Amino acid sequence: MNHLMENHFLNRIDAEALLKEYGSPLYVYDEKTLRERIRDMVNLLPYPWFGVSCSIKANSNLHLLKIVREEGMDADAMSPGEIFLLEKAGFEPSQIFYVCNNVSAEEMQYALDRNILISVDSLSQLETLGRINPDGRVALRFNPGSGAGHHEKVVTAGKKTKFGIQEDLVEDAKAIAKKYGLRIVGINQHIGSLFLDGKPYLESVKALLRIAARFENLEFVDFGGGFGIPYRKFHGEQRLDLKALAEQLAPLLLEFREKYGSDLKFRIEPGRYPFAECGAILGTVHAVKTNYDTKYIGTDVGFNVLMRPILYDSYHEIVAIRGGRMVSDPDGEKVTIVGNICETGDILAKDRPMPELKEGDIIGVLDAGSYGYTMASNYNQRLRPAEVLLTQSGDIRLIRRRDTFEDLLAGYNF
Ligand SMILES: *Cc1c(COP(=O)(O)O)cnc(C)c1O
Prior knowledge:
One of its GO terms (molecular function) is pyridoxal phosphate binding. By secondary structure, the protein is an alpha/beta fold.
């Protein structure tokens, strides 16, 4: 066992008892880890004009969102549904930023009715907003022409992505805003997800500041999320050096603020970082077989439970749980761990050295707190798992029940 894993919360729970009570598979979150990771972000820079919004598409469990709010984060919503949940979690309209793309006028109206600021990411959407909310406030999402991320599908800026307004349309955007009396109060970007080296982020900060300088009277500049976590923990992958990042970020912001000469605020929008490491999935091995040359470990953690591997070829460390402890074996037999969904791509991990696994064994999939449950589905009409929270006092709290068969009928109640 990697020494870093000694303190992992999976060593502090009774996995077998939890699966018995709540069913397998099961999402387990650790409150302590969640609060620590949130604080890493909130305390990144010590200035009152620096704020952190949580991008809740990474995890929108209502109970976790309440913790996010308690810890002093604001929030980004990508849809009316996320706005709805944020309100239920107690966020004020002024704490919510609607960062949408390609939405209807009705969706914009949903935010406007609640006095929630909208970021538009095309001139087309700016026109739509201007028509329904003349003389209102708006933020513009820019695409500085370069992006970064762990996979082509999560690079969200650059010349080949759908996001943002390109830089040379600044004057056109201003003209449309003027036509409708819209006040451009903020600009934002999000260049991509999961960087572990701060360089591309800092470059994008410079790019957005260059764009910000072309606007007067901005209230805020929002640099987006993307802060990575080390998924390959057993391979010595290093954490993102937040201290170094902060040291390089601070002077850029201080200098710009001085030049800009107003009470400008800066924000970041992490989604993955606060939640990823506080979450794990417990699952059960149901079958072991060798098909030709590959040994398959058949589990109940299909891509209806965790979609990241099939969607982005993502890597998650996987452990066996024995006697209440996490067990790994870097020299173990290489196996392919798969789920129970009828799709060839339903692979959790390929050629992974594991301790010997047999039917009935419990596995733990680490770092599944972000883009885990939020992407879970009922594909194959499987029931989405329950979610439980290991609280700071060491209790287990059910924070979302497992789906029931009745839930599969919810859309047919007419
Ligand atoms: C998804 C998203 C984020 C969060 O990205 P992470 O990589 O999870 O930090 C931030 N801002 C916007 C606009 C997003 O779409």
